[in-house]
Amino acid sequence: MARLWLAFGYFVNPLPGKGRTGFRSFVSASLLCGGWLLFSVCLPAGEVDSHPPEVVETAEGAVALSDLPPAYGETPYRLGAGDVLSIQFYGRPNLTRPQVTVAPDGTLSYLSATSVEVRGRTLEEARLALEAELTDLYRNPRLILTPLELASNSYTVIGMVRLTGVFALDSPITLVEAMARAGGTESGLFDRRYVDLADLDRSFIIREGRRLPVDFRRLLLEGDMSQNIALAPGDYIQIASALANDYFVLGAVESPGREGFTAGASVVAAITKREGFTRSAFRERVLVVRGSMTEPEAHIVNVREILRGARPDFPLEPKDIVFVSNRPWYRPEEILDRAVAVFLRSATATWTSANAPIIFTEPVLPGTRDRNEP
């Protein structure tokens, strides 16, 4: 039926040079529009083009990408220390300041408006704040703020990439573009062939204090662009090392931290090396996290039973996370997120302390040098 309407509309449309073209053209256009609408309605459901929202699978379930914190460019830009603006006074070109920099304390000074707090404000909010300060000396001041350099927004990439550091986020950028900007992952020569030195299964990105559900293996090795999220100011990307042959003991132990893996490593031996439990440690259910960040395996170990000889010790593998809670828990889901969060903080601090340059090699204050030094 839909095709008959379309054919009829085409049939009544006059050929060039024929009379009464206005009315027939109107009728023809109407029939064409009606036929197209009917054709669309009559299409089978499977042929309708739909675009469901993309989702990222995590261990906890599907999380819509739209639920992630906003990326750069999705919200109005907010000023910060180091940003450079051009400020014009409408109708007073002699009062133009071509370059004004936001001070480290987040303030901006222009004419009689001194030390105006602009950190965290949009350009419009900063303009209104400056105009309010100028009303004492100027009638109805109208300013034009133009951003020249947006240096306060940045993201960080560390770990097994060719170029680590803090990068300016002055335009929208995706995770793949950020990795390319950092030179890609590190590779090295092993057994006469080049191998990738990055452990993508344990790499992660943190935004606003929480890990985002991004699978680096799917993104960088399998080309899954659903994982290619846009970055936001303050994003922290760590690419783990495939060479790391260690494990972490965290939580309610006397000396939490990283421990080098040796043959025969076990939960009890690991806790002993970290100086034992604290007084509040929940020994009946020690959690061992194994595998990738996106699909971790949770193993529950009753250390109290092991110490009594009721069951054998639990053997560890490289890159395991041993987490001791300071309060009772009964389901792995209750404690897994907390264990991974503690690990992320510890892994970040470990990499930074091992790779950050020593800034001060001499005493900072006079008179603090060791008297035994020559």
Structure description:
- The chain is α+β, with helices and mostly antiparallel strands and 374 residues long.
- 25% of the residues lie in helices and 26% in strands.
- It is built from eight helices and 19 strands.
- It has helices at 2-12, 21-41, 123-134, 175-181, 216-220, 267-273, 303-307, 332-355; strands at 55-58, 61-64, 84-89, 97-101, 107-110, 113-117, 143-149, 154-159, 165-168, 187-190, 193-196, 198-207, 210-211, 236-241, 246-251, 257-260, 286-291, 296-301, 321-324.
- A five-stranded mixed sheet has the order 9-8-14-12-13. The protein has a five-stranded mixed sheet with strand order 16-15-19-17-18, with helices on both faces.
- Helix 1 packs antiparallel against helix 2 (21-41).
- 23% of the residues are buried.
Summarize the helices and strands and which ones pair or pack:
Elements: H1 2-12, H2 21-41, E1 55-58, E2 61-64, E3 84-89, E4 97-101, E5 107-110, E6 113-117, H3 123-134, E7 143-149, E8 154-159, E9 165-168, H4 175-181, E10 187-190, E11 193-196, E12 198-207, E13 210-211, H5 216-220, E14 236-241, E15 246-251, E16 257-260, H6 267-273, E17 286-291, E18 296-301, H7 303-307, E19 321-324, H8 332-355
Parallel strand pairs: 8-14, 15-19
Antiparallel strand pairs: 1-2, 3-4, 3-7, 5-6, 8-9, 10-11, 12-13, 12-14, 15-16, 17-18, 17-19
Classify the beta-strand content into a percent band. 25-35%
Helix content: 10-25%
Number of strands: 19
Radius of gyration (CA) equals 31 Å
The profile of the biggest β sheet is: 5 strands, mixed
* Integer count of domains: 4
- Mind telling me the CATH superfamily name of the largest domain? Outer membrane lipoprotein wza domain like
Please tell me the CATH architecture of the largest domain by its name: Roll
